[in-house]
Fold this protein.
Amino acid sequence: MKTTLIKPAEVKRNWWIIDAEDKTLGRLAEVIARLLMGKHKVDYTPYADCGDYVIVINAEKVKLSSDKAENKKYFHYSGYPGGLKEYTFDRVIKKHPDFPIREAVKGMIPKNRLKYRMMKRLKIYPKEEHPHNSQNPLPYKEEE
């Protein structure tokens, strides 16, 4: 049996559309990270960028389990003394609905040079509308 390794020129990329409405943030981020890395494909190669494009709609309607919406904190440090700022999930999702999903996915992708290429293929929109209709994205169905 021969192991097949894909070359970057041979990669075929699909477009996937995921509706984030009433989905849990962590479980949604795991699905998105798997699609961006290409682990769902038969010819997955760890050192090659063989993932797909992912469109996430309704990002502002993503939810967290239990009381994490009030307790989950995001931190930003300016580099100056006393420059640590913290924001709750509720405050962040109102101002930047794409930020929690982007941060969760970024934490689940391997920390190497391919990470930036993979993250460029992630498109997140707060509402139902998106400008990628011409790519004919496939709706993602969860396996249950």
In short: Residues 13-69+97-139 form a domain with the Ribosomal Protein L13p; Chain: A; fold (CATH 3.90.1180.10). The CA atoms of residues 46 and 122 lie 19 Å apart. DSSP finds five helices and six strands in the chain. The beta strands are 15-19, 53-57, 73-77, 84-88, 122-124, 138-139.
